[in-house]
Amino acid sequence: QVQLQESGPGLVKPSQTLTLTCIVSGGSITTKDFYWSWIRQPPGKGLEWIGYIDYSGGTDYNPSLESRTSISRDSSKNRFTLQLSSVTPADTAEYYCALARVGRSPTISDYDYWGPGTQVTVSS
Fold this sequence. Notes:
This protein is an all-beta fold and 124 residues long.
């Protein structure tokens, strides 16, 4: 059973870089056809896909966030990390890491393993 756990600061100041880490257990982040994503949900809004890193280390990002987003991984520690730069209060959200096990670029509905989420507030 794959388990994911987000970790990171709950409060970030505007203009700073948000860094979140997803620690994975019960499965390897290098398993073929596994896609590891960051997804967020702002207060009162729907889910927004931020980006993924796949089993080979390839990445893809939401075009609306791409200029500020970087996702990387540490295979030796079985974890992957989100960096979102130049944050504003609009980046306040519940942030989730999630896994899709498909042989193609996944959609939101493909994600069948989720972390519990971590609340991030951007405020001075």
